[in-house]
C-alpha cells in the first residue's frame, strides 16, 4: 500500500505566497521550454502544501494559485478545444481509491460494473485532429479550454499516422513522450550541438514538441487514450462512437493504425470490480521498471459512456476518472562529491555522493556513476543539480545534470591519476579503467570472495587469516590455497594443530565443489552466481567454456554480443589461475550437465520439474530447505530446470514464500503468481535435494 504523500509545510502567509510564486515559475518553465527547477514529485508536494494552506485559510487564496487549474494555470493557448482537456485528480493507495469509487457510485446512484484500467503515461497530453482521415492539426492541452498549435511536429511523432485507416473526421487524444531509446538519442544530439543534455524524458518531450528553430530533430512517440468524433459530424459512425464503451473506442483507435498501449505489457483492461481494479494496478506497477517508456501512475475510469455522462465534470477534472499515482523513481538533488574505489577485479569505479533525497521509499545518498567515459559523456560537474533514477531493485544511478540550474560555482570532477587502492598506474585503454595490477591490487578482496560460502565455501579463512597467508608469501591468489602444506600453516602465528587440520579439511572439500561454484570464484567480470550457474550447466566442463568463442557464449541466457567478447578476454586473462586450479585437482565439471561439443550443449530436459519456470524465493525457509543458504536454494532451482530470480514480475512462474514473506508475496498475489510454501516446494524438487 502506498502511504499518504508528503506535502510542503507552509507556516504563514509569506511562505504561502512564496510557494505560489515558485509553483507558477516552475509550471511556466516546464510548459515553456521543457525545463523546470523542480522535478515532478517536488512540484506535486508543493501544490499539495499550497492546497492544504488554502483549506485552512480560504480568505488568503491568491489569484495565481495553481490549485484547481489545468497545467497549474501556466499555459494559455489560442486554439479552442471542442471539448475541454482537463487534468485528473489523484489517489495514492487502495483506501483512497475505494473512497473515490464509493463517492462516484453515490453520485451515480448505482454500482459501477465496468472499470477501464490503463497506465498513466509520463508525457504531455495533446489533441490530434483528423479531417477525412488525414492529420491536419496538433494542439497541446494548454489550460484545458484552449491549447497551443504544434502542428510543426507532424511527421516527427511515432505512432501518429498521417492518415487513418478510415476517412473519418475525428479528434484523437493521447500522450506525447520520449521512449528510453529516443531520450538517449535526443541527449546525444543536444550534447553534440551545445554540450548539454536534457534532464529527463518528460522535459525533453515538452521542449521538443514546441521547438521550431533547433538545428536538429528529435523523435517523439504518441500513445492514444481517447477519441472524439467531429462536433458537426452527425454520421452513423460518429453517433456510434459517442455511445461505445471506452474499451471499444480504444479498440477502434488501434484499428485506425494509431499506437495505443494494447501491444505493451501494461495494456488497458476492463475490470468488473474494485478488487480486479486493484489487482491490475499492482500488475502495471510491477511492470514499470521494465518498460521502455515512463509511467507515473494508473488511470481508472468508468468504461461505460452512460456512467461518464451522468458523473460529469468538475471545473478541473472529470468525476468519472482518477489517477492512481505511483512513488517517484526519479528526483533532482545535488552532486556533492565523487568517491573512487578499486574493486576485487582491479576495476576502478566512481560513486556519486549525493545530498540525501527520498526516492522510491528510501533515502538515497550514493548512486552509480559507472566510469570515467560515462561521466564525460554526461558532462557532470561537482555541485551540479542532477537527476537520480531508481527503478525496481536497481541501484540508484545519476541520469544527467540539470544544466539550466547551474550557478557558475560548479567544479570539474577530478579523475584519479593512480590507483586509489595501491597507488600503482592505471590502465586507461578501455572505458572501465583498471589498476595495472588487476586482481593482485585487491588480492585479499579477490581471495575472500572466492572462498565465500556461495563460492568455494572454505571455512576458517577470515580476512585476517588471508592477509596472514599473503604476508607470509604462501599465497598470491586463491589457487595457491590448494598447495599450502600442513607444515607451512603450523609455522604461522596462532595456527595450532586443530585449527590447521580443520582448515586443510575445508580446503580439501572445496576441491569437489561443482564447476558453477568454481567459475563463480574466478570472479569473471560481467558474471555472478546466477550467470555462473547458467554457463556451467550449458557447457558442462571448464575446458568447453575456455574453448567457446564469443558467438558460442551468446547461446547462454543473459550473455549478449557486448558481454560475450569481454567474458572471452577475461577467461584468457585468468588462464594461468585456471591452470593452477586444474593442477591442484579442483573439480572442473558440473554435475548433471551434458558437456558441450563444439561450443553447444544439449538443452535441459523438458521433464525437469521446473523446466521453463522463473522462480522467486522469499522469507525464511523451513523443513528440508531450512539449512540451505539462499544461493543454495537458487542452485536447487536451476538443477531442477528453473531460472532463479530475485524480483517478482508478471514473468514470475512461482513464488516460494516462507515465514515473513512480506512485499514480494503481496506483489505475487496481486499478479496472480502461484505461491507455494517451502515444504511443498521441497516435494516438487525432492530428487534434486
TrEMBL record:
Family matches, as PROSITE patterns: BRCT (PS50172), DNA_LIGASE_N1 (PS01055)
Keywords for this protein: DNA damage, DNA repair, DNA replication, Ligase, Magnesium, Manganese, Metal-binding, NAD, Zinc
GO annotation terms (biological process): DNA repair; DNA replication
Active site: 120 (n6-amp-lysine intermediate)
Catalytic activity reported: NAD(+) + (deoxyribonucleotide)n-3'-hydroxyl + 5'-phospho-(deoxyribonucleotide)m = (deoxyribonucleotide)n+m + AMP + beta-nicotinamide D-nucleotide
Residues bound to Zn(2+): 419, 422, 441
Top EC group: ligase
Gene3D superfamilies recorded: 5' to 3' exonuclease, C-terminal subdomain, 6.20.10.30, BRCT domain, DNA ligase/mRNA capping enzyme, Helix hairpin bin, Nucleic acid-binding proteins
Cofactor(s) needed: Mg(2+); Mn(2+)
One GO CC annotation: cytosol
UniProt GO MF annotations: DNA ligase (NAD+) activity; metal ion binding
Pfam families assigned to the protein according to its UniProt record, in alphabetical order: BRCT, DNA_ligase_aden, HHH_2, OB_DNA_ligase
Residues binding NAD(+): 40-44, 87-88, 118, 141, 175, 301, 325
All copies of domain BRCT, residue ranges: 605-679
EC nos: 6.5.1.2
PANTHER family the UniProt entry points to: CHROMOSOME TRANSMISSION FIDELITY FACTOR 18 (PTHR23389), DNA LIGASE (PTHR23389:SF9)
Protein family according to the UniProt entry: Belongs to the NAD-dependent DNA ligase family. LigA subfamily.
Function: DNA ligase that catalyzes the formation of phosphodiester linkages between 5'-phosphoryl and 3'-hydroxyl groups in double-stranded DNA using NAD as a coenzyme and as the energy source for the reaction. It is essential for DNA replication and repair of damaged DNA.
Name of the protein described by the UniProt record: DNA ligase
